Each structure stands twice: as C-alpha cells, then as structure tokens.
Amino acid sequence: SAPQTTASLFGIDTLLSEEERDMQATVARYCTDRLRPNLADWYEAGDLPARELATELGDLGVLGMHLEGYGCAGTSATAYGLACLELEAADSGLRSLVSVQGSLAMFAIHRWGSEEHKQEWLPRMAAGEAIGCFGLTEPDFGSDPGGMRTRARRDGDDWVLDGTKMWITNSPIADVAVVWANTDEDEGSRGIRGFVVPTDTPGFSAPEITKKLSLRASVTGEIVLQGVRLPASAMLPEAAGLSGPLSCLNEARFGIIFGAVGAARDCLEVALSYVGDREIFGKPLAAYQLTQAKLADMSLELGKAMLLAIQLGRIKDAGTIRPEQISLGKLNNVREAIAIARECRTLLGANGITLEYPVLRHANNLESVLTYEGTSEVHQLTIGKALTGVAAFR
Ligand code: FAD
C-alpha cells in the first residue's frame, strides 16, 4: 500500500475546514516556488532580500492576517497558525519575519494603539510596504523584562527615550519600532509603556547583530535610543504595565506552536525520503528496525504536536485561551520539534550536516525558537504556577 504521512495517520484533514486547507496550500505553494530554492543561499550568506519578501508576503495576505480591518484579512487564529506552519516548514527565519510583523508590531498597534497609529501604520504594514519591529528585550533583561532600564521621561509634552534593546528581529531594516520603556519617574504614567517610534527619528539607531549560528535567514539587531524625542501622541494609549507587551508575546507564541510543527514535518519528510534511497549493508536504511522505531516515534510526536496546535487554535478562536495553555503548546511543540530535527540529522549521517538538506538548518533555527518568546524554562514555570498556584519565577 502507498506510504502514509503523519498527517494522514492522524487524520488531520478531518479537523480542518476546506477554507483552512486551501489557505495552507496557497502558502505552501509560495514557499515551494519562491523560498525553498533560495533558503540555503540566504542562510549561508546570513542575508535575505527582506524588503522584497515583505511585499510578497503582504500580497500573499499573511501579514497581520488574523487582525480585523486596516487592510488585514481577519482570518481565524487557526488559519494564521497554518500559515505559520508552512512558512516555518521552509525556515523559522521567514516565519519570524511574519510573526514579528503581524503578531508583535501590528498586533501591538491594533490592540493598544490610537486610531491615528492604526491609520498611519497598519495598512502599509499589512501590504509589507512598511516593516515593523518590537523592542522589549535588553542586554541584561530577557526573561525578566520588568527590570528593563530603557527610560521614557517627560519633557514638556514630549517623551524622551534613552536605553538599549537587544536581539530585536528586523530592527536594522524596520520603518517603525514598537519600543517598551519604563516611565516610573513620571507620576501617573503607570510603569512600562509602549511607544510607536518611526526609525528615522533622530537618536534612533539599530546596528545589526552578526555571527549568528541560528536564524541566519532573519535580520536581528539592537535598538539604541539616545535622547529620542517623541510627541505625546507616540505613546500607545491603551497599554499600561507588562500586560501590554505580554499580550503581544502570547500572539506570537501562538504562531510558533504551529510553526514548530512545520519545521519538524519538513525534517521528517526529508529523512523519510533519504532512508528510502540510502543503502547500508546491502539494503535501504528504511528497512532496518532501528530506523523504523525512530521514524515511528518521531511521527507520533509530530502528530501529537499538531493535535495540540489545532486544539489550541480552536480555543483561541473561541476567545477563551489562557496564557498557561499557550505555554503548554510552545513548550511541547518546540521541544519536540528540536528533538525530531536532531534525530532526523542522525538518519542523514554526514549528509545531514550540510545545507544540501534542510535538517541541521531547522535544528539550528529551533535553538533560537526554544529561547525567544519565553524560554522553555519560563513556560515550565508558567505551567507549574497554573498547577500549584505558586509562582516560582524568583
Ligand atoms: P536569560 O533570560 O538570561 O535566560 C538564560 C537562562 O536562564 C535560560 O535558560 C532561561 O530559561 C533561564 N531562566 C530565566 N529565568 C529563570 C528562572 N526564573 N528560573 C530558572 N531558569 C531561568 N526580543 C524582543 O524583544 N524582540 C524581538 O524581536 C526578539 N527577537 C529575537 C530573535 C532571536 C534570534 C533571539 C535569539 C532572541 C530574540 N529576542 C527578541 C530576545 C528573546 O526574547 C530573549 O532572548 C529571551 O526572552 C531570553 O532572554 P535572555 O536571552 O536574556 O536569556
């Protein structure tokens, strides 16, 4: 009988609507035609034509696709997740571009911005004509963003921002940055606040971070703020305190829950095809029991991760998802995806270490995915707190 895929073994199609499957297929086609032929080169060069790709992704309709109005498609969360899955099956860097644009920068403006912020930025960002970034992490504050040193102080009606953000996806190429800063010294301004900062504002710079061994097909930089003067209207009026940035992170984490499944699926597909062709001790590698045990275990974890992603998509679409449920998905799916990528690499032997195959590229990318958007440990602590009622973060 014809070989089955993990998706067919688990009957995944029965869980998705025709509209969701069509949209997934459209994104998959774009990835096959446009991204896959170039990924190894972009990865090796540590460079990609991000502006060009952003407008193409805008045409494809995936930038801010789960948001309503302002040129956004307004799809279900599950449909957005499936788009992330296909993009990350190509490369986590491309999914990062889309996540940061749609779930972090656009979502922040859509959820917390003024009507003027939305009109000014969202239509251009949905079209990929303007690129956004999201500056929360600092050199000394990643898992604990509440300790941030970036300050916004009042000067007349204006705000003046000083500080440094680190590890900011897209910052060197961005047109607009959503920057989170502490306003504690300003009475009545309620702690951490978000600011919409056009990147051509004097005092703003974003040097690129180079020598990365992970997410090489993604632009990463710092944000240096030296006396960046902004009008009062630059502040996101609706967000006060850490709940503002955390709400955006939950959106991006949701995309990762699906995205990680894509990276793992791609590795497993490549490994399956490889073991069918590779002859060792006179027969195909696929015919050995040890190989089949590896494949069965990986397929099982992949299918379970997909079921978890779809379940979380449905409760997100119902509007009832809680942060600890997002943590379950991010923790499990990224942890299992990186384990699958590494196991697939063993099946490819020495060939597995090159860019001829996507497997080690995915595994290396997933090291970043394991760390950003809340590390695995932070998600364990979040789930632990939900189970015990006791916070063990500090
Ligand atoms: P740390 O917080 O220093 O953590 C180090 C280790 O300590 C980890 O293993 C962690 O799990 C562990 N740890 C932390 N707290 C605890 C605890 N309470 N108990 C036990 N162990 C603990 N940030 C942005 O704001 N915007 C972006 O666009 C962005 N893009 C990124 C792109 C890339 C490629 C990368 C790698 C990172 C990006 N980040 C971005 C930053 C990312 O969110 C942080 O790296 C992440 O939050 C972890 O922070 P850290 O690196 O400072 O690690």
UniProtKB/TrEMBL annotation:
Cofactor(s) of this protein: FAD
A Pfam family that the UniProt record links to this protein: Acyl-CoA_dh_N
UniProt-listed InterPro entries: Acyl-CoA_Oxase/DH_mid-dom, Acyl-CoA_Oxase/DH_mid-dom_sf, AcylCo_DH-like_C, AcylCo_DH/oxidase_C, AcylCoA_DH/ox_N, AcylCoA_DH/ox_N_sf, AcylCoA_DH/oxidase_NM_dom_sf, Glutaryl-CoA_DH_mitochondrial
Acyl-CoA dehydrogenase/oxidase C-terminal domain ranges (all copies): 241-387
Domain Acyl-CoA dehydrogenase/oxidase N-terminal: 17-129
Swiss-Prot/TrEMBL keywords: FAD, Flavoprotein, Oxidoreductase, Transit peptide
Acyl-CoA oxidase/dehydrogenase middle domain mapped to chain residues: 133-228
Family classification: Belongs to the acyl-CoA dehydrogenase family.
Protein name: Acyl-CoA dehydrogenase family protein
